[in-house]
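Renewal narrative, Specific Aim 1. Our central claim is that a sequence can be written position by position from structural information alone. The example that follows is taken directly from our test logs and has not been curated for this report. It begins with the structure tokens describing the chain, in the order in which they were read.
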């Protein structure tokens, strides 16, 4: 099984798994980003062949036949990307890459020289240096709050310079590729990732030759594995701190508040330090009442589609519930719902970023 089959099989399996657990996914970065990566590059040894006019080796006449092939060493690659991430998990990007591989070409006696038929009669060293410029489209499947899997494809141009002994030629060719990657969110703006690319260059037309020997290249493919960093150029908004509850009247016994509001960052469902403090206060109040049941309602602002915001509001409610359970509140006493953008705290038009609408409310229902 080659890398092409592994890529297709892995993409199908992970895609099904990711779609089955979409409620566990955290929203992707939005807006512009840049990336840099580097790693190893492999080229199929069956792609390149040395051809020659067998009769011409003796008489100057004859037909073209294969006289040898090139064996490629493991090389290296460096790539840079600039792209834009949409709120529906799609990304588009421009990619520039450079790949380098050394090679060893062997010329074989074609059988017209008597007893030496099939033996090596010449050995040449060389290099294949390539610059590629590609346009890629990718989709991100979010597996956990920090881990995601990407699958995509791209097309563009490949400029290659092939040197084999005295032979040298430079060609521009069309190229296309498949991409798969695993991404880990180091911070809110920085991702560490591992990418695999399967790049194909159809029918490169090298024309260099020396004497009766020339280069012939079939469709050749490259497998590239890289490790890199991706930086989100759009800073996330700081979440708005929750307003403290009003103090109780001095003569009365201090009573625990019955509603708390947790605010979230733009397009986020994770609890910040300030949000965690509010969750701790809500947990303490729930324990003080003893017999309280809890309703958590998630909300969003009006940026994004209704369906996307409904799912985001549910994730915010579930993240708040997890915080209460971690503080010792019984999970069975908590109910979560999502309202999406249907119940705005601050009324805005569609597509408006409003920090006070990105929230989850914690309501304690006290049983006497």
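The sequence written for that structure reads:
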């Amino acid at each position: 099984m080659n890398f092409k089959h592994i890529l297709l099989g892995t993409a199908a399996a992970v895609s099904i798994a990711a779609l089955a657990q979409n409620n566990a996914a955290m929203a992707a970065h939005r807006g512009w980003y840049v990336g840099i990566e580097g790693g190893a590059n492999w080229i199929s040894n069956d792609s390149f062949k040395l051809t020659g006019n067998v009769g011409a080796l003796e008489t100057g006449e004859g037909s073209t036949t294969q006289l040898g092939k090139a064996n490629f060493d493991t090389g290296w690659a460096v790539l840079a990307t600039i792209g834009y991430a949409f709120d529906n998990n799609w990304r588009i990007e421009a990619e520039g890459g450079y790949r380098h591989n050394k090679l060893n070409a062997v010329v074989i006696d074609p059988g017209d020289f008597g007893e030496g038929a099939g033996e090596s009669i010449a050995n040449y060293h060389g290099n294949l240096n390539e610059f590629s410029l590609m346009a890629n489209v990718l989709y991100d499947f979010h597996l956990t709050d920090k881990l995601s899997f990407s699958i995509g494809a791209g097309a563009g141009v490949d400029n290659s310079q092939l040197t084999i002994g005295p032979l040298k030629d430079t060609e521009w060719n069309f190229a296309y590729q498949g991409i798969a990657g695993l991404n880990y969110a180091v911070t809110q703006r920085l991702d560490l990732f591992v990418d695999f690319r399967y790049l194909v260059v159809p029918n490169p037309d090298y024309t260099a030759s020396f004497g009766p020997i020339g280069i012939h290249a079939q469709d050749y493919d490259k497998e590239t594995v890289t490790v890199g960093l991706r930086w989100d150029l759009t800073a996330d908004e700081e979440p708005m701190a929750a307003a403290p509850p009003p103090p109780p009247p001095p003569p009365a016994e201090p009573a625990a508040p019955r509603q708390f509001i947790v605010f979230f960052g733009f397009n986020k469902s994770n609890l910040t330090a300030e949000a965690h403090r509010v969750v701790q206060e809500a947990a303490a109040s729930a324990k003080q009442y003893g017999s309280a049941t809890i309703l958590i309602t998630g909300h969003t602002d009006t940026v994004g589609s209704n369906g996307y915001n409904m799912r985001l509001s549910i994730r915010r409610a579930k993240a708040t519930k997890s915080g209460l359970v971690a503080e010792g509140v019984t999970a069975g006493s908590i109910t979560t719902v999502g309202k999406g953008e249907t119940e705005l705290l601050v009324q805005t038009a569609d597509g408006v970023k409003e920090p006070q609408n990105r929230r989850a409310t914690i309501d304690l229902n006290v049983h006497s």
